[in-house]
Design a protein that fits this description.
37% of the residues lie in helices and 17% in strands. It has 226 residues and is of the alpha/beta class. It has a single domain, classed as Rossmann fold, CATH 3.40.50.10320. A seven-stranded mixed β-sheet has the order 3-2-1-4-5-7-6, with helices on both faces. β1, α1 and β2 form a beta-alpha-beta unit. α1 runs antiparallel to α5, α2 packs antiparallel against α5 and α3 crosses α4. The longest helix is centred in the N-terminal third of the chain and has 18 residues. The two termini are 17 Å apart. 41% of the residues are buried.
Amino acid sequence: MDRKRILVIVAHPDDETLGCGGTIRKNVEYGNEVFVLVLSNGVGSRDSGVIDSDEIKRRSQNLDEACAILGVSQYRLLNFPDNKFDSVPLLDIVQSIEAFKKEFGFFDRVYTHFWGDLNLDHALTCKAVNIAFRPCSGSDVSEILCFEILSSTEWGYESEWFRPSVFVDIENQLENKIKAIKCYDTELRTFPHPRSVAAIEALARTRGSVVGYGAAEAFVPIRLFG
């Protein structure tokens, strides 16, 4: 079996687990190389305009713990402003992705956010990924798949609803996904909030039931080349 090189590009720490944590773990178990690029530390400034350095350190540790559970050893956390991706030139975000690509080489598949997410950072991440991996001559990426993020994707606009057509069986990886998301304990809420453990598991079960799996993660493809 040929070893695949997989890149997951997300806006904030925890998005990698919420969006495709089970798929990440499954790829690792298959022997594929998985890289994770997180564009922002996920910590916004206070009313005073001061960013809490302790909170940044905590979120970075959360990412360390989650990646360890998912089996990812190659990941990087950048410092674009949380919930303010529209305050920096899109080209800066694109070039940071291109620099990562140049450093680590080719990738077969990229997972990222859905373009219709209510969260602007998510939507702009998707746009930047599309630009960075546009299918020019010599491009290696044959697949780009968009995942959903609870409390963001489902709150988007009707014209941009998430309509998945790719489903990954994560029944055997769901336990690891739940363990990983619990690393981000301050980001979790109590049910019936969609960012709760119960809702995260319910979505995985629901997506799985659509295609006959015990649990699944769902994706909208941007690119699927043969």
